Amino acid sequence: MDGVPDQVPYSERPKSLNDILTTELNNIIFDATWEGKASPAVVARVILENGYQKGEKQ
Fold first, then answer.
1. For residues 17 and 21, what is the distance between their CA atoms, to the nearest angstrom?
2. 23: containing domain
3. pLDDT at residue 54 above 80?
4. Does residue 21 form part of some domain?
5. How far apart are CA 56 and CA 1, in angstroms?
6. Which of 1, 20, 47, 53 could form a disulfide with 14 if both were Cys (CB 3.0 to 4.6 A apart)?
7. Tens of pLDDT along 7-19?
8. Count of structural domains, the chain
9. Domain presence at residue 31
């Protein structure tokens, strides 16, 4: 399938824009903490300070 790695089972592939954005947000947090640039708490605080809100658009 073009654009989707075959190693990812169909059941785990993103089904909606929210799924894609959740994955992207998780990747940002993982990359920042894995590289030792920040702790998960610092990353979460910065994300919240920059206007992220879970749920419907406000």
1. 6
2. 10-50
3. no
4. yes
5. 32
6. 20
7. 778 888 889 998 8
8. 1
9. yes
Q: Is the pTM of this model over 0.70?
A: no
Q: Has residue 58 been placed in a domain?
A: no
Cα(11)–Cα(30) distance, rounded to whole angstroms?
Answer: 22
Phi, psi of 32 (to 5 degrees): -65, -40
14 neighbors 20 (Cβ within 8 angstroms) = yes
Q: Which residue has the tokens 């749920």?
A: 55
Question: For 1-58, what is the HEC assignment?
Answer: CCCCCCCCCHHHCCCCHHHHHHHHHHHHHHHHHHCCCCCHHHHHHHHHHCCCCCCCCC
Residue 27 tokens, joined: 């990747």
